[in-house]
Design brief:
The complex is a heterodimer of chains A (about 750) and B (about 150). Chain A has 17 helices and 34 strands. By secondary structure, chain A is of the alpha+beta class. Chain A folds into three domains: about 200 residues, 2-Layer Sandwich (Aldehyde Oxidoreductase, domain 4), CATH 3.30.365; about 180 residues, Aldehyde oxidase/xanthine dehydrogenase, molybdopterin binding domain (Aldehyde Oxidoreductase, domain 4, 2-Layer Sandwich); about 325 residues, Aldehyde oxidase/xanthine dehydrogenase, molybdopterin binding domain (Aldehyde Oxidoreductase, domain 4, 2-Layer Sandwich). In chain A, the strands form nine sheets. A seven-stranded mixed beta sheet of chain A has the order 13-15-11-24-21-22-23, with helices on both faces. In chain A, helix 1 runs parallel beside helix 3, helix 10 runs parallel beside helix 11 and helix 13 runs parallel beside helix 17. Chain A starts with a strand and ends in a 16-residue tail after the last helix. The relative contact order of chain A is 0.11. By secondary structure, chain B is an alpha+beta fold. Helices cover about 35% and strands about 15% of the residues of chain B. Classes of the chains: A alpha+beta (about 750), B alpha+beta (about 150).
Chain lengths: ~750, ~150
């Protein structure tokens, strides 16, 4: 098969600098604007405005090959899978390479953003090109050295060879290769000839993880470092009035207690500079335990914050937001959503004439779904190290988007960005939470004030009650059937606190002649953020439960009913824009049907639920097998099918799908954060129920669609459909439909 | 402030600090042994699991004053080079995603196998249910424990 040729833009450049040993350092900068490997330029999930991408390879003269991982690792395996892509095209033996986490340098290393299931898809082409370019330069260096034509030189696992018998390893040619210009064209390997990508490789940090090496921000330490904690208001909608730290300051090991503003009132926030509390108290001391204890001695007066105006300059441009001052209670939040849902909403998409379809319907199915706020609950609580000096700063810790935090840090510290060094540690989970860097800003401001290196630590309670949650959502779905039970109209109206979940251009849009999608938002002082597959994690739960009930009403098998709709969307799509590819969507359902041996929703004492969803340009579906264990519904087995294009590291990819399934079951059954007068009712794992070992399935059988399509997202897509597959199995198990999460303690207040 | 001589991973370590200080923070802050993790501080997540006389316990709830000369083993002392059968099984099954909870999981699993070398699925579930893995690697944890038990 003919190789793909990739051209570098004229403005691309090679920066080369000699290593101590006279080796080669290649770094490519692509100043050509950003386009993801899947061809979409739509910013899904978390991303915004990529401009530069770079691959990064170092080879020493003694043939040590070092591959730099550009993106922060939070458990999605990028520290292994991204270097695998480099190694594939460079043509080196995987066992011979060293992998290192890169420094923060968006010019050299690209966006360096972990989120939106973007890592592999946005780095796929750039890293392949970087590896292939480096290989080509090494070949050219050998050709010049040996006086032969480059086309006669072959590479094999880090060895250059020529038919005359000449042979050299990459290290021997690295110094000369570093002086050569970057090739204008590079040939990528054919996907079918891959020997590293597509073959499972173990986590490069596996040994460090199991031996407890200091990988995480929590483990970051420098000599003379102080420990800091913050005290934030006890409720959303409250602010600091005054405090008395006299008892705190008497405690051993305490250095300083002061209040500080994270942002000045008129501070123009970036899109991810979410402002939960304006003013905080910092407690700084020698050790964690001393600071924890001393904090308890603070005497603080809080008062109502009232209405707040914020200016946010995010990717959607500059907006002014009025944040209400009310102290919210969960029961009222559900009431507010129900009330708002009765009012006219913003129309997002309309195909055909849905009003007439519903007027002429023989049968209408209408159902409302609700879901609570969710806390991310990363196992490693938020923390950051900062050492801010008069003319420079070093900050280090767990962060998903270092490039977004840099401009804000620069403004807050009044230091130019080039004087701020950001180090990314391994993250003890992220799930979207660590794209919001307020904890890093707090650490930096505290360090600046106390003029010392400081590590800010959140306790679990600080972490769980600080906001930036998955929003609360509601959606009402309606379907119109004619007298022959044909689906003639579809309507979804969704909203949330404080954002709407609706993706109007996704399935089943495109498959139904008369379609209407509407949206509303209810502002709140409870802050929210991206949470593994934002919005999708609710939409899939609601829509895929609704389709299950609709299929039953239509007298159809739930998989067949979806396949019929997808067939319609494929052959004769409705509307101008449908985000999904109905063939790939159907392909996942077909694979799922085969692998799960699906015959229907009941198999003896096993209740089966099915759901599939499209997001982050990938397709994922599950069949959940539920039984009763000790009188409780229990998901014993899950069969999963995923189409995410080429799978880079199959075993790690399967691990992520399995994790998404467990995460989905846990949140569907137990997840939820409730409020009473603005106070979070749960603040630790004694009250916030997390799924545990005995509640996880015995078996999660993961299948990937075989594909040569450039990789699409994987960290998020398997998560959203789990909720609905669980709900649909629950219905088969209990005979009752579940509309309100979490299912095991379905809220009575709705 | 009081002075304590602790027996950690077979080595005597002296610390002088507040008697209420949990061993978790003695290890992390005072002895620079960060393999034992802080997760919840209320013995609900298991990230801070260590061995006290061979028993798995939550170090966030164990004040330094209560230890005396009992033997403490941490992840740093479980093996010289990460070659404890449980650690090897963890690598074989590539269990970790983010990895933060895994040292606690491994310490709980190692204590389980020491006291019950051939645990049933129910034994594994009952013992491991005190350790939360937010990434959801429970299935691989179970498989890794079975692999380690077979060695």
């Amino acid at each position: 098969m003919e190789k793909v040729t990739n051209k570098y833009d004229r403005r691309s450049f090679l920066k080369s600098s000699a290593l101590a040993g006279g080796g080669l350092m290649l770094s490519f900068s692509f100043l050509t604007g950003f386009k993801r490997s899947d061809g979409s330029s739509d910013a899904s999930g978390l991303n915004e405005g990529w401009k530069e991408l770079v691959g990064y390879i170092q080879i020493s003269s003694d043939n040590v090959i070092k591959l730099i991982c550009p993106n922060p690792e939070f458990g999605q395996n990028v520290m292994t899978s991204l270097p695998m892509i480099l190694a594939e095209e460079l043509d080196v033996n995987w066992e011979d390479v060293l992998v290192e986490m890169g420094p923060h340098d968006n010019v050299k290393l690209g966006p360096q953003f972990t989120g939106g299931s973007n890592s592999v898809r946005m780095y796929w082409r750039p890293l392949r090109n970087a590896g292939a370019s480096a290989r080509q330069m090494l070949i050219k260096a050998a050709a010049q050295t040996w006086g032969v034509a480059a086309s006669e030189i072959k590479t094999n696992q880090g060895i250059l060879s020529h038919g005359s018998g000449k042979e050299a390893n990459y290290g021997e040619m690295a110094a000369l290769a570093a002086k050569l210009p970057v090739p204008k064209d590079v040939k990528n390997k054919d996907v079918q000839n891959f020997s590293i990508v597509g073959n499972s490789k173990k986590n490069v940090e596996g040994l460090k993880v199991v031996t407890g090496k200091p990988l995480f921000g929590m483990d970051y330490r420098v000599e003379g470092m102080k420990i800091a904690m913050i005290q934030h208001p006890p409720a959303f909608g409250m602010k600091l009035k005054s405090f008395d730290a006299s008892q705190t300051l008497k405690m051993s090991g305490i250095q300083e207690v002061f209040s500080f503003k994270l942002y000045e009132d008129d501070f123009e926030q970036g899109g991810f500079d979410t402002r939960t509390f304006n003013e905080l108290i910092a407690i700084v001391g020698n050790s964690t335990w001393e600071v924890m204890n001393a904090r308890k001695k603070l005497k603080v007066q809080w008062e109502a914050a009232g209405e707040l105006k914020q200016t946010i300059n995010g990717r959607g441009g500059k907006t002014e937001m009025i944040i209400p001052g009310r102290l919210e209670t969960t029961a009222n939040q559900y009431e507010m959503m129900a009330e708002q849902a009765k009012k006219p909403a913003r129309q997002l998409r309309k195909d055909g004439d849905p009003e007439t379809a519903f007027k002429n319907a023989a049968q209408i199915l209408e159902r409302t779904y609700n879901a609570p706020f969710l806390a991310h609950n990363c196992m490693e609580p938020m923390n950051f190290f900062a050492h801010v000096e008069a003319d420079k700063a070093l900050v280090a810790g767990p962060i998903q988007a270092p490039g977004w935090m840099e401009p804000t840090l620069s403004k807050l510290l009044n230091l130019p960005p080039e004087k701020i060094e950001i180090q990314m540690t391994r993250m003890g989970g992220g799930f979207g939470r660590r794209a919001y860097a307020q904890y890093a800003y707090e650490a930096a401001l505290i360090s600046q004030k106390v003029k010392a290196p400081v590590k800010l630590i959140y306790t679990r309670e600080d972490d769980m009650t600080y906001g930036i949650y998955r929003p609360m959502y509601t959606a009402t779905y309606r379907a119109a059937l004619d007298e022959n039970k044909n689906l003639i109209g579809f309507h979804v109206k969704g909203g949330g606190i404080p954002e709407s979940p609706i993706h109007e251009n996704r399935f089943p849009a495109g498959a139904i002649d008369n379609y209407l999608a509407e949206s509303f938002e209810i502002p709140s002082n409870i802050t929210i953020g991206a949470f593994r597959a934002p919005r999708s994690n609710f939409n899939a739960a609601a829509e895929q439960s609704f389709l299950d009930e609709l299929a039953e009403m239509m007298g159809k098998d739930p998989i067949e009913m979806r396949l019929e709709l997808l067939d319609r969307a494929s052959k004769n799509p409705v509307g101008e824009r449908n985000d999904y590819d109905p063939k790939r969507y159907a392909g996942v359902l077909q694979l799922l049907k085969e692998k799960a041996n699906w015959k229907g929703p009941k198999e003896g004492n096993v209740s089966r639920g099915v759901a599939a969803y499209f997001c982050h340009n990938s397709y994922a579906g599950h069949v959940v097998d539920m039984i009763n264990k000790d009188g409780e519904p229990y998901v014993e087995k899950v069969t999963s099918a995923v189409d995410c294009g080429v799978v880079v590291n199959p075993d790690a990819a399967a691990n992520m799908v399995q994790g998404a399934v467990v995460d989905g079951i846990g949140n569907a059954f137990y997840g939820g954060l409730r409020h009473q007068n603005g106070v979070s009712e749960q603040s630790n794992f004694d009250k916030y129920r997390m799924i545990r070992h005995h509640e996880a399935p015995q078996n999660i059988d993961v299948h990937f669609v075989k594909s040569e399509v450039d990789p699409t997202g994987l960290g998020e897509p398997p998560f959203p459909p789990v909720f609905a597959a669980v709900a649909n199995a629950l219905y088969q198990n209990t005979g009752r439909r579940h509309y309100n999460q979490p299912f095991m303690t379905e809220p009575s207040s709705i | 402030m009081a002075k304590y001589n602790l027996n950690i991973n077979g080595v005597k370590r002296s610390v002088e600090l507040d008697p209420t200080t949990p061993i978790l923070w003695v290890l992390r802050d005072h002895l620079n042994m960060p393999g034992t993790k802080f997760g919840c501080g209320i013995a609900q997540c298991g990230a801070c699991t260590i061995h006290l006389n061979g028993m798995a316990i939550r170090s966030c709830q164990l004040p330094v004053s209560a230890v005396g000369n009992q033997e403490i083993t941490t992840i740093e002392g479980l093996s010289e080079n990460g070659d404890h059968p449980v650690q090897e099984a963890w690598i074989e099954h590539d269990v970790a995603q983010c990895g933060y909870c895994q040292t606690g999981q491994i310490m709980t699993a190692a204590a389980l196998l020491k006291n019950n070398p051939k645990p049933s699925d129910e034994d594994i579930q009952a013992t491991m249910s005190g350790n939360i893995c937010r990434c959801g690697t429970y299935l691989r944890i179970k498989e890794a424990i079975k692999t380690a038990a077979a060695k």
